Amino acid sequence: MREGSLEAPTRYPLAWRDEDFYDREKLDAEMRRQFDVCHTCRRCFNLCDSFPTLFDLIDQSPTGELDKVDSKDFAKVADACTLCDMCFMTKCPYVPPHPFNIDFPHLILRYRAAEAKEGKVSFPDRELAKTDRNGKLASAVAPLANWATDPGNKRMRGLLEKVAHLDPEAKLPSYAGRTLLAAAKAKPELNKDAPAFGRKAVLYATCYGNYNTPQVGLATRAVLARNGVETEVVYPLCCGMPLLELGKIDEVAKHAERTAAELSRWIAQGYDVIALVPSCALMLKFEWPLILPENAAVKQLANATFDISEYIVSIARKEGLAPGLSPIKGGVVLHMACHARAQNIGQKAAEMLRLLPDADVTVIERCSGHGGAWGFKSGHFEVALKVGRPVARQVREAGKTYLASECPLAGVHILQGVEKLDGSAPKPELLTHPIQLIARAYGIAA
After folding, report:
1. Does pTM top 0.90 for this prediction?
2. Segments forming the whole domain that contains residue 60
């Protein structure tokens, strides 16, 4: 048996249609097998709260080993996992193809799928995961929705804590009064003299990009138009990441089938696909093919999908960017989102920003601690701040004018962590996505 794994990590399709996948005895045996490997290694102790929770349970047991840890306590380990994938991608030496076959995030996903099958997903969690319904309703009354969710609105946030289990101090996503799909009806002027003229891309808006941050999609579209790329904006429905976090794999599969079928029409016409949020790009590229490995449209979509930064860097390398970029003064501290790192494409956001003249970029490659909807919840928010505190410190010490993360939730969470640190250092301006700096460098409002 070799120590560690020298090959690139690989993942196997999820056997979610198999009844054994949900069998509690078999699941418990697999959790104990993988947890015991984690216990003997402990390389992942500082990644998130799941591993310290597991190791404390073991260390405090009568034998100091896993055999005396009650299986009921595994719920605490599973609850602390944000499915960030960093243990699998960056820390664990025993991931497949190593014979130990350790895949902690997908083990936790299996546990949550068993919980979901038994009807143990809470009502608030089920309702929060309905992002399309929530987005449509909240966007229609955006000023009212944003007023109600503002942390300064103590009465409404207190009510939200009771009803939805959302921490009253966590900054929740704000809603735009005009969706990206509505704003995209006006097309930017195409630069036919750009080196990349002839490329075509369809922007998969994502629920967050459509209802919460249309400015990212508009900035992306404007930058691509400047570079001669014809674009369309499409949004069949959510990628299903919020449902995946709850273990509702069957519902994710439905989202994948419908979205892949819609986007396949564009791929057939020669369009590339750009996902506006890293988590959604990860779903399209990696998670969907593991859930529906037999679906040809899903496989085709995975091969045609790009992250925003990845696509801009591709243009720069293959054709060259259109001229006209100006320096951005003051520098930027860039947080590499976990789900961007999990795509295994390298630091594409940093590469993109370094295309700017006189680029001054400080990169932080560490988890913000937020973990999607997980970081909003009561009982999790303080833990999320603790996990993200090293990132907040690095942002403060960097002293840059701008802060950007490819993950819109991570950026807001990091800035909130900076605000909670002692000190009077000025806060950087938060950008929803680094593509907005490229737009500014082109003189495009973003």
Report:
1. yes
2. 19-117
